[in-house]
Amino acid sequence: MSESVNPIRIGIIGAGGVSDYHHVPAIRLDARAQLVAACDANRELLEKRKRDWNVAIASTDPDEICSHPEVDAVVIATPNNTHRSIALAAVRHGKHVMCEKPLGLNAGEVREMYHAARDADVVNMSAFTYRFAPAMRYVRHLVTSGEIGEPRHFRSQRFLDWPETSWGWRQYRRLAGAGDLFDMTIHRIDFAIDLLGPIARITGALARFAPRTVTASGEACAPSDVDDWSSIIGEFAGGATGVWEGTTLAKGYHRGGFGHEWAEINGSEGSVVYQLHTPNSVLLGKTGQDLAPVEVPAKFLKPSGSPRVLGQGEPATVFRYDLMWEFVSAIVEERRAVPNFYDGLRAQMVADAAIDSYERRQWVDIEDEHP
Questions:
Q1: For the chain, which residues make up each domain, given as ranges?
Q2: What distance in Å separates the CA atoms of residue 110 and residue 103, rounded to the nearest whole number?
Q3: Do domains 8-129 and 130-315+345-365 have the same CATH topology?
Q4: pLDDT per residue over 71-120, tens digit each?
Q5: Is this structure's pTM higher than 0.90?
Q6: Integer CA distances (angstroms), 322 to 127, 191, 317, in order
Q7: Is residue 135 within 8 Å of 274, Cβ to Cβ?
């Protein structure tokens, strides 16, 4: 495909901060892609994005974007309860689809989305951005190459120091599905499965501490009914164990707005740690040593062919642009994107099981879903 003659024409559905900060800059970097359309329910925001993004096609109706003949692919960054219907509309019109996480409100919705996209043979992608962090790419190499021996333990912490004011739609289960569990912990479920394989069984716990009955501007709103703390203990099918904890109420963990993230693998020969605030290095240690910083080798700093210029931009932000690079590459190369809706489904099944486990106060077995 000629990059100059036939760029992949992308429409963004959901013009909020994630799209503006991550997806649009990524599209601008890629000569094979062109941003042509914007969609948002907020007319004022839509008009602003139309001007700022310089797009000719703008609509408050997602189906208009999904059916538009001048759109080849869509990015879905809308409230969670709308993902399923928009994705199915896009697939029905033959559009390639990238969707923010979680893909749906539950595994049933996600399974329907995955099967529809698979059967229509359109490229589908789940926006698990942290897979593209250089440190995480290197951790994957160290695990899969056997460098740290047989993996035994996975450990994840995601601690954020967020205000206790309203999350908007994100604080209501009917719109979001869950809170921290679906927003943050689901990312860590995904890369745990990617690193160590299927999770066989889990026990989960959820809690809500902040009522969130006031907006940032001081207006009253209905209280939150989703978790702001989540925890999972799990056993992988391969024999390893896992522990996940996430919270938005960890005071003192601001770290420039990026919060604290720690993902660790303990193997029979050594341990390796990924941290979001230092995404270009890992902590590595073998038996009898202390964990020590190791720079990520150059070949893991970005995917081969990524247009990002190394050393430019905030390290904890710019690796996210490679998500769009992978999406466009999969379309151009006519192959599956990684991670895709299947990966989103596997993570969703574990997250759903955490809710089920807590409600029933017992361990829950998870049947691995075959592609």
A1: 8-129, 130-315+345-365
A2: 6
A3: no
A4: 999 999 999 999 999 999 999 999 999 999 999 999 999 999 999 999 99
A5: yes
A6: 11, 16, 10
A7: yes
Q: Name residues whose C-beta falls within 8 Å of residue 77's C-beta, 6 or more positions apart in sequence.
A: 12, 13, 14, 15, 16, 18, 19, 23, 100, 127
DSSP3 helix / strand / coil % (the chain, rounded to 5): 35, 25, 40
Q: Are 278 and 294 a contacting pair, CB within 8 Å?
A: no
**Residue entry with tokens 């004022």:** 44
Q: What phi, psi does 274 have (nearest 5°)?
A: -105, 140
Q: What is the pLDDT of residues 207-262, one digit of tens each?
A: 999 999 999 999 999 999 999 999 999 999 999 999 999 999 999 999 988 999 99
User: Domain 8-129: which topology?
Assistant: Rossmann fold (3.40.50)
Please classify residue 64 by burial: count the beta carbons closer than 10 Å to its beta carbon, then call 0-12 exposed, 13-18 middle and 19+ buried. Answer: middle
Fold of the 130-315+345-365 domain: Dihydrodipicolinate Reductase; domain 2 (3.30.360)
Confidence band (pLDDT; 50, 70, 90) for 4? very low
User: What is the four-CA torsion angle of 94, 109, 198, 99, rounded to 10 degrees?
Assistant: 50
